[in-house]
User: What shape does this take?
Amino acid sequence: MAVWEELQATVDALVDGRRGILAADESSGTIAKRFNTIGVESTEQSRRDYRAALLEAKGLGDFISGVILFEETLGQCSANGKLLAQVAANQKVVPGIKVDKGKGPLAGAAGDMITYGLDGLAERLREYKKQGARFAKWREVYPVSPHNPTELGLQANAEMLARYAAVCQAEGVVPIVEPEVLMDGDHSIERCAEVNEQVWHTVFHALYRHGVTLELMLLKPSMVIPGAQSARAEPQQVAEYTLRSLRRSVPAAVPSINFLSGGQGNEEASANLNALNKINNAPWQLSFSYGRALQQPALAAWAGRSENIAKAQGALLKRARLNHLAMLGQYCSSLERES
Ligand code: 13P
Assistant: This one.
């Protein structure tokens, strides 16, 4: 199979108009923080047990087309000896892998961040592919302040995303390009729109310069919402601002936009996605690639106990189904009360 055919087959498996992506790729530090909230120690086994429970939820593939895994998970087997990537694939959920190596301050641009991990990326991708990964994710992070992101921050982060995406496509791995504009702060929805437009414009210029084929990648952006320390906006307003900014800066060739949840509440993330899809005049599929907004209730229900696995799986399936309905514009908050 030619590389582009391989990439196209993966895009087709991920993008079908009714399913989204489960982000289960928390780094060791982040998953330890999440486990801490339920009083569970993060060990190789507890991480495996939790993530195996998510992937084994019966019917997950009805609502979820892909799962982003952390490197450790890709090599792990479930308690009954099945590779977790294979457990996902058997559910018609395409396994993917987070390939960035975390972030730190960007020297020369106070307040901005930069992500690490380009060295040796092609070799790592070849190994991940052998283990079953068909797509990858790389996240750049943009804090919002009166001075951030700086012009240097915009350019440097876009360059990283484009170099990563070009290497992925050369290796036959579909890149998810994730420029995350952080929710932290008391900025307005207008300021969030302004920053997201700057970010997306810069990222798509860099993708073009690096020869990335837009039809064979996915975008994972933040929604345009007010900062976490500002009053929440109504879903209709979020949808209008988000679509206006996306239309101004994201080419129609991109097949799918899979939003991150970024600290939005579970119901908020579903209601906003629903409002986006109700407007329904976008050239791209509008879907989700949620981490917290899919996993939070499942994590709380599990609480580290094997006897709670069925309850945790039920909680995950509920959020997955409600976000699938939001993709169809059929979500409504009264569905939250049903089991
Ligand atoms: P959240 O939906 O919790 O923001 O996670 C998505 C993700 O993959 C962040 O990189």
